[in-house]
Amino acid sequence: MKPRVMTLVVFTALAGLVAAPVDMHPLAAAIAILCIAVGAGAAGAINMAYDADIDAVMRRTRLRPVARGVIPASEAYAYGVVFALMSTLMMALATNYVAAGLLAFSIVFYGLVYTVWLKRSTPQNIVIGGAAGAFPPMIGWAAATGTISLDAVLLFLVIFLWTPPHSWALALYKSGDYKAAGVPMMPVARGARSTRIQIMVYTVLYLAATAGPLVTGLGGVGYALAVVLGGALFFLLALRVLMSKAGEAGAAEDELYAVRAGDKAARDLFAYSIAHLTLLFAALLVEHGTGLHVKLSSLGGF
Asked: Which parts of the chain span the membrane according to its record (predicted)?
């Protein structure tokens, strides 16, 4: 069920639920978050079953249970489908059909559209497929309100535009893995230099999107600090990747996973990207969860 990936999914979903302008019953809220976690795990199980062949080739994924043969792919498929249906049905019963529909769509999008179609067919796989990982805060918002508002869409957009620089930073220093598995990640299909340029472009788009909640008033002073200060560091790390030689190691170095200056830049951006997204949603969670939300407009900011 990929629990490490699920952690960020659950956290952003919780932030979306708490930031919504509706007080939700604690039990219903807990069930909603559980459903999102189970749904994400179900999609992960389906992904793991389908990708067992390439997971077995890549060092980063070769210890996954289906790739190791510990769990048969047929059982992983069954597990994923059963929990996908259970999580969607429980979400519908505990909250509303809008949240349940979004949860079902995100599971299908990740389990089928991304895993089966996009991942092995196009270097844009992570751009389009990133939508699946951007749904959790929108689902959390919908669970609380029964609607999809502009603020929910902005939270979706933040994660959607965060995904390419995050994932391509990883792909730069793991390009040998993807090449061996035949996965057309951007560094493999278009080269390291093109990938570094696109990381910079998407970084600018991502940072612009993070300002959206400030304009609508969803984000307060704490969120603004995370956007400005944390975003500045994100930009500098992305610029460092752009100016580096990340992903351009020779084949022998790729096989040995040599840590060079360029690849270290990509590693640093990958690690910090997780921290920055967490910081943004933590700010929203604290502001709305504790009643400390102070709009910039009240300070004359907008």
From this structure: 29-50, 70-91, 97-118, 125-146, 152-173, 194-215, 221-239, 269-286
Residues in the chain: 302
The CA distance from 50 to 210, in Å, is 34
Work out the number of other CB atoms within 10 angstroms of the CB of residue 71.
17
Task: Show Cβ contacts of residue 97 under 8 Å, excluding neighbours closer than 6 positions.
Answer: none
First to last CA, the chain: 43
The residue whose two tokens read 């910081």 is 279
Q: Does domain 1-147 have CATH number 1.20.140.10?
A: no
> At a CB cut-off of 8 Å and minimum separation 6, what does 64 contact?
48, 52, 55
For all residues of the chain together, what is the average pLDDT? 92
Q: Give alpha helix (H) positions in 95-220.
A: 97-108, 125-134, 136-145, 150-173, 175-181, 186-190, 192-210, 212-216
Tell whether pTM > 0.85: yes
Q: Is 90 helix (H, G, I), strand (E, B) or coil?
A: helix
Whether the CB-CB separation of 192 and 174 falls below 8 Å is answered with no
Output phi, psi for 244, to 5 deg: -90, -175
Model confidence pLDDT, tens digit, residues 216-258:
999 999 999 999 999 999 999 999 999 988 777 654 444 434 3
